[in-house]
Write a structure and sequence with these properties.
The complex is a heterodimer. Chain A is mainly beta. Chain A has strands at about 5, 10-15, 20, 25, 30-40, 45-50, 55-60, 65-70, 75-80, 85-95, 100-105, 110-115. In chain A, strands 2, 5, 6, 10, 11 and 12 form a 6-stranded mixed sheet that branches. A 4-stranded antiparallel sheet of chain A has the order 3-9-8-7, with no helix packed on it. In chain A, strand 8 and strand 9 form a beta hairpin. Chain A is globular, with a radius of gyration of 14 Å. By secondary structure, chain B is mainly β. The radius of gyration of chain B is 13 Å and the shape is globular. The N and C termini of chain B lie far apart (about 35 Å). Classes of the chains: A mainly beta, B mainly beta.
Chain lengths: ~120, ~120
């Protein structure tokens, strides 16, 4: 079955330190990979995506993610965390199935950046 | 970027009544819309995929007769929760895209509370 895994429920990091939010996937074919951020009682905001090409993808708010095909991972990273980065982060995968496509999400990782 | 408008943002209804949630793409034609349900502190569960002019494709375990989805035009999809019960209380989020490689945009979500 197609799936996306975010192994950490919560990531804690001090402001100014680098952060990593992990994501691995199990999808056949060549999926498209996404990261979204969600603030309380709000919809999802797009951060970045990987379709093809350079494995290092740069996105909004200084975030980047590295696609690793052999490890089927797409970890989100930021060199220097801000308190305002504290939110819920979702990894997502889009893939084709039965001539249509779906977008499924990981379980989410809460990022807490302390001052 | 493109905007997806979801209405209402909050709705409270009595048990046994029906509630309709609208999802509109404001500045692009959405050939496909997705409906998700999010439980507290949980990820987004894909409920159904709707393509303009055709019947929605529901995920396993989602009751078609309870969650009616209509995608009558390229800019509007509706989710109707019929005969709502307290267990239907949740945060419902729609997303829209213009195609498989197109960007996916999310509405702000609708919080349904069934008394």
């Amino acid at each position: 079955a197609q799936s996306v895994a975010q192994p950490e429920d919560q990531v804690n990091v001090a402001e100014g330190n680098p952060l990593t939010v992990k994501c691995t996937y199990s999808v056949s074919g060549n999926p498209y990979l996404f990261w979204y951020v969600q603030y309380p009682n709000r919809g999802l905001q797009f951060l970045l995506k990987y379709i093809t090409g350079d494995n290092l993808v740069k996105g909004s708010y200084g975030f980047e993610a590295e696609f690793n095909k052999s490890q089927t991972s797409f970890h989100l990273k930021k060199p220097s965390a801000l308190v305002s980065d504290s939110a819920l982060y979702f990894c997502a995968v889009r893939f084709l199935m039965d001539s249509s496509y779906k977008l499924i999400f990981g379980s989410g990782t809460r990022l807490l950046v302390r001052p | 970027g493109a905007v997806v408008s979801q209405h209402p943002s909050r709705v409270i209804c009595k048990s046994g009544t029906s509630v309709k949630i609208e999802c509109r793409s404001l500045d692009f034609q959405a050939t496909t819309m997705f409906w998700y349900r999010q439980f507290p502190k949980k990820s987004l569960m894909l409920m159904a995929t709707s393509n303009e002019g055709s019947k929605a494709t529901y995920e396993q375990g989602v009751e078609k007769d309870k969650f009616l989805i209509n995608h009558a035009s390229l800019t509007l999809s509706t989710l109707t929760v019929t005969s709502a019960h307290p267990e239907d209380s949740s945060f419902y989020i729609c997303s829209a895209t213009s195609g498989y490689t197109g960007e996916l945009f999310f509405g702000e979500g609708s919080r349904l509370t069934v008394l």
